[in-house]
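Researcher: Next entry in the queue.
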Amino acid sequence: MTKIDIFSGFLGAGKTTLIKKLIKESFAGQKVVLIENEFGEIGIDGGFLKESGIQINELNAGCICCSLVGDFRAALQQVVEQYHPDRIVIEPSGVGKLSDVTRAVEGVAEHLDVQLSSFVTVADVNKVKMYMKNFGEFYDDQISHASCIILSRTQNATEEKIAAAVAMLREKNPTATIVTTAWDALTGEQILKAMSTKDDFKAELIAMAAKANEKHAEEDEEEEHEHHHHHYDENGVCSCGHHHHDHDDDDDDDEADVQNWYIDQLFRDLQKDIAEYYNISETAASSKLYTEGLKIYCAMDENAQTYLENAALNIDKSNDSDLQIASTIMGYDGRVIATVGSSTKKEGALGWDRSYNSVLQPGSSIKPVVVYPYAIESKKLYFSSMVLDEPLDNYRTNESGQLVSGPNNAYGYYNGNMSLPDAIEWSSNATAAQTMELIGGPSVAYQQVVTKMGFQNLTEQDAQNTGALSIGGMNGGVTVREMAAAYTYLGNGGLYYKPYTYYYVTDSEDNIIIDNRDAVPKQAYSAETAGIMNRLLHYNVTNSAHTNAHYAQISGWDIIGKTGTTDDDKDSWFCGCSPYAVMATWCGFDKPKTISYSGRTTATKFFANVMGKYLKGKENKEYKISDNLIEATYNPTTGLIVSTDNISGRYVGYYTEDNMPSSGGAYYSGNYEYGSDVSDSSSYYNPNYGGDNSGSNYGGDTSNSGGDNSGGDTSGGGDNSGGEPSGGGDNSGGEPSGGGESSGGGESSGGGESSGGGEEAPPAAE
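Model: Structure for this entry, 766 residues:
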């Protein structure tokens, strides 16, 4: 009679190790046939099997639980009749239903001289709770229909962890033998006995478990055990199977039971990419991920992910108890290094991710993405150009159908002319809108970001409204991940790479089917334009006196970036870069409301905190900036070149030979003022500002946030319609308005225009 043993369990649970142990220690001398449909995944090499006298019948028709009625039964019968084995070991697909497999075997047993000896489920002690949450009926079926449940990785688990896992398993299966003893402490014969019997072996197992736990406790007193068994190589590459969601395998708290935000994004990316590769639906792609033994080589930086998630959970909420945060760190080749989608503890898999799902208003953080670099690219502006800070006539249509001028500046007035570095540092809305007109209007900007920079959530209205892509008051919106990807051009020579969360994917036979390592980028801007914008944003962070960008400074590092805040301070952004990575961060509420004064600094401080940890220990290096750029000192009052020989001081510009100003004579060394109302101390510009924020008021760029689908309490999906709109005026009344960096908090006042109905009043300048 042929005995049949079925081993179920998810990929990574330890089935391979267990089968090899049994083959070596218990099945020696027997004629054994191994049947499984994930041969490339099981990892038992042919040499080992040959030495052990094991014959293999490989089924490659997909998940065997999907072909039980025909192919599987026929194959099993053929194995029995052809080989007459003493034992058949069956390993179904990782998420194959154990109940289906056992029924199929029992059906064959009615006609052949075979006996179902055991049906075993191997369960990782660290992942029981997580798999019950993530995989529902598939995992429950494996547990509830097992005659024996063998826990893996118990050697490094606490008694509490083991007990909790056993309790959850007992709820699903009150009768199965549950083996908790570390495998190294058991012989193959003892494991085989546990698989085949129940009550008569329980006492022996209990005694052995007690002895093993006692020994483990003694060892704990002598040394601190290392509990990190991540499937990563020295470069942080996760080479685990597709459904191995947890990357903190052996933590003794509940954090290990919920997959991190990164793995959620990886899964969503895989769904889309697999669907595209096979030309199938995303639902069908998801099924492939769970059933076909694919190997995913994850691109996550584990340390950075830890920094990011811990920092998100610990942001200052003293004045904003329900403040949310979303952030993505990205390499200059599009690699998503780390990401987080909430400031609250993650409760489950594939929920609403504010970094990936939420479509938001970017405020003035959009300005370095399209309006200013496009103007430099087309030689409409150069580094130190004097730009017009005046409203546009017929800027928008109000709710009464009347054309009105705009946009308003957050500081409540217009400066006439200002240098481009100062226009960015002041976050002037008017200069951005004027520049939009200079480059040919919003349709030009729209084509740029849609075709070359990966924006997927804009609308046709955004291609017509000046305010949409000049000051960030959009009808559609952007995601945090899109903004991170858009900023990468600043440090890689003007290139745009599609974001990726995994390096490559192999099938069950280790053939590479999708590879992100050799992705072909798009040239978003020239290397020269990228370098000029890089230095303009360096100026912004280094000399910021009118926004909170200076909070992003990290000692010893060249940091660049731009803030952004929406109408009534409902959203706060900082998109910044170090020479190693880009980081985009959003702060706001699921039900939009004004962020407190201190909350408006959260995004920039968050950047400095997390990026500072990420950079710790790294060799300092410079950005990738074109050698074709010419450095020169310029006169800040005229924008003209002072010297190309003696380059020094604060006012150093970067130019191309065919796009630079003429010599402007002597350098103007005195203080100069912007503003129509210099009696107000907040409107006085001090070029000698050194980073001390005393006497300065910080707010943020204000833009109309209408159309923001920020997610709200939506729990998942990918449907960007979740939650309440973020308010700030109805865009149906004309072009969104706003933008600009507010020097004062609270509600806007003055200016005579109503702040409701899509009409913006200039914010207060305290």
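Model: The chain has two domains: 2-222, 324-402+412-621+696-733.
Researcher: Noted, moving on.
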